[in-house]
């Protein structure tokens, strides 16, 4: 990352919606055209600002779902009592405009260049979004670091990017934890991620792994504490918390 | 209201400081704990934006937006160093 890029001003710009795509019943991916985008790193987010006719405005942060080099996309979960997400997931159409600023963040990012540590990715609910950017970045860059994904979600229909994750079979080991409801014949993990499952999925500490954990605050706390308990140094457990709503 | 973390105020801090700040290192003036801003405990509408120490819960940063200005209180931080 060049120093000049880090020192740039963060200004609001107008994005045009290029396409929308429903991922689940309550989750939608929104692809944006951003003429002044400087490019992003996997794991970063952007801020969206909506302004009402009376001048009232609301800002929210959304993780970027696409890889560096791809058109910018965000994936938004509809919160029924939300101020912003119902508009983004039900009203917004291709051709509409949004105020956006970004990319934002430098902590919860992963760069394929020089990456050597095995990746442990843990997502709760829509915490999968920045991890999907990381997985795409890894695939597009040809990085050979092994990766495992632990994905906790309420039920099978709530799995975001399901078909894309299936395509990673063979190159990324994906383990699901279904916390509320499992389909008939489900042989995977049911219930929240527990210490046994985490120990099964986590790379042995001797392989010097790095972990990225994103999801509702309680999920992140549980996983991060569990990994530290398994011997992961806290500095190698990168965390991003997005609050309580919409979690697994 | 749920506690978030410093990643959630990356945009606001960039606006205030003019640079990426989630990777900056902060030192708590109360307990001396040191860590990345991304790991501060953050409340977005407290009212105002409040960042607390993850170790001792002392208030580190308060930012209140009023009349188009950001009022920034950093008294809870002994040090804040950009990466």
Molecular structure report:
The complex is a heterodimer of chains A (248) and B (83). Helices cover 21% and strands 33% of the residues of chain A. Chain A is an alpha/beta fold and 248 residues long. Chain A has a six-stranded antiparallel beta sheet with strand order 4-3-6-1-2-5. In chain A, strands 10-9-8-7-11-12 form a six-stranded parallel beta sheet, sandwiched between helices. The radius of gyration of chain A is 18 Å and the shape is globular. Chain B has one domain. Chain B has one helix at residues 10-17, and strands at 4-5, 25-28, 34-36, 41-43, 49-52, 59-66, 69-73, 77-81. In chain B, the strands form two sheets. Chain B has a five-stranded antiparallel beta sheet, with no helix packed on it. In chain B, strands 3-2-8 form a three-stranded antiparallel beta sheet, with no helix packed on it. The chains are: A alpha/beta (248), B mainly beta (83). At the A-B interface, strand 3, strand 6 and strand 12 of A face strand 1 and helix 1 of B.
**How many domains is the backbone of chain A divided into?**
2
In CATH terms, what is the architecture of the largest domain in chain A? 3-Layer(aba) Sandwich
The largest chain-to-chain contact, stated as pair and per-chain residue counts, equals: A-B, 24 and 21 residues
The amount of beta strand of chain A, in percent, is: 25-35%
Query: What's the number of extended β-strand segments of chain B?
Result: 8
């Amino acid at each position: 990352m060049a120093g000049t890029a880090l020192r740039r001003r963060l200004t609001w710009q107008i994005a045009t919606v290029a396409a929308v795509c429903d991922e689940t019943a309550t989750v939608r991916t929104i692809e944006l055209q951003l003429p002044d985008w400087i490019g992003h790193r996997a794991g970063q987010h952007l801020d969206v600002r909506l302004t009402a006719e009376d001048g009232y405005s609301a800002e929210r942060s959304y993780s970027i779902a696409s890889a560096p080099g791809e058109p910018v996309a965000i994936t938004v979960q509809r919160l029924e009592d939300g101020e912003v997400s119902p508009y983004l997931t039900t009203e917004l159409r291709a051709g509409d405009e949004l105020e956006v600023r970004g990319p934002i963040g430098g902590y919860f990012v992963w760069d394929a260049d020089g990456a050597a540590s095995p990746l442990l990715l843990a997502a709760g609910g829509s915490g999968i979004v920045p991890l999907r950017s990381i997985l795409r970045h890894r695939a597009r860059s040809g990085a050979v670091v092994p990766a495992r994904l632990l994905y906790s979600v309420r039920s099978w229909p709530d799995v975001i990017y399901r078909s894309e994750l299936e395509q990673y079979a063979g190159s990324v080991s994906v383990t699901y934890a279904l916390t509320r409801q499992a389909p008939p014949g489900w042989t995977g993990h049911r219930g929240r991620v527990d210490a046994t499952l985490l120990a099964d999925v986590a790379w042995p500490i001797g392989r010097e792994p790095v972990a990225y954990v994103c999801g509702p605050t309680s999920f992140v706390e549980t996983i991060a504490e569990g990994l530290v308990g398994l011997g992961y140094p806290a500095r190698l457990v990168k965390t991003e918390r997005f609050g309580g709503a919409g979690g697994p | 209201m749920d506690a978030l973390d410093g990643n959630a105020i990356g945009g606001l801090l960039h606006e205030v400081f003019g640079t990426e700040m989630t990777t900056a290192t902060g030192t708590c003036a109360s307990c001396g704990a040191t860590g990345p801003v991304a790991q501060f405990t953050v409340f977005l509408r407290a009212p105002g934006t409040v960042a607390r120490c993850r170790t001792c819960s002392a208030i580190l940063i308060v930012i209140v937006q009023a009349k188009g200005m950001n009022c920034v209180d950093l008294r809870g931080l002994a040090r804040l160093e950009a990466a």
